[in-house]
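A favour, since you know our structure tokens better than I do. Just paste the record in under my message, thanks.
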Amino acid sequence: MPDAPVTAPSRDAGSLERVWAEVDGAAISANVRRMSGAAPRSACCAVVKADGYGHGAVPAARASLEGGATWLAVVTASEAEELRAAGIDARLLVLGPLTADELPRALACDADIVAWTPEVLDRAAALGGARVHVKLDTGMGRLGARSPELATALVRRCAEDPGLTLAGAMTHFATADELGDRYFAEQLAAFTDWVPVVREHAPEAVIHAANSAAILRDEATHFDLVRPGIAIYGMDPFGANPDSRELAPALSLRAALGAVQPIRAGQSTGYGRRWVAERDGWIGIVPIGYGDGWRRGLTNAADAIVDGRRCALVGTVSMDSVAVDLGEEPVAAGTPVTLIGTDGDERITAEDLARALGTINYEITCGLGPRIPRR
């Protein structure tokens, strides 16, 4: 160990970004085929909202269509516009509530919309040509008609108004990812009981309810269309190992070490001195922080893989950097570091990070910020 701080020799990192995400489109396609195979009698609507759960909406949409999806789902009018501007012409469903400004923009994208109040139908009918999916809230407690009677009234309105087409009917499950609970079955029963009313007024309407967890949990949820989201990105909807569901994680997150520095026993790194070295060694500075979506809650709670070796991330996560404990042997500055993904025999998953944060895998990839380019 040298007496004065020095940096290890730099590796040529000219071709590397500071930090970047690698997105495997073939994995997304394979995951779509996996979910479609679990619901072979249903069409597949790939959910690519929130920038494809952080993977990039347009490449995720294209990979999903290559994998056999025939519908795509987003939440906002701007998300629909992004897909159409990229030349994607698949059937498109906008799931979210739309403002008076957004509604005509969504319809201009030739997108189906979701409705649960008479007011939404009034605005859509005035614009004309709207394809509507009536949503029954069977217990999610968010969006949707709160009673079968109201949902049925909306269905009748769509069937009778020349400015509207009843294109579908839907619900959403609150606890599909909680295996063994009873509420899921109650929601399914409530929706199943209502479906014949929809069929009576619009036999061709597309009936749909199942998210990723429901697809894998109960084939009775499949109906005409399924809506896989988290699973198409290779993350487990139940928060377990994706391998157990035959899912292939599509995103890897990597960075190039910004610097490598010696550290002596008793010295610290980062704000607040929340990690103090117990022995002499080396630390690397990883140029990622909460400004990139690498959460401050991961302080002293996550690992990285450096040259195939699992190392602890140490010290407070700051806005732009965090340190990694390299042990007694330095590596070169510029060495790639894997934060999510596989290097050699080691792997770190979004589920691993979610457990460290007490959250869900969705939040890990959705939270990756725009400073991180997607390759």
Remarks:
- Residues 210 and 218 are 9 Å apart (CA to CA).
- Residues 1-9 have pLDDT under 50 and may be disordered.
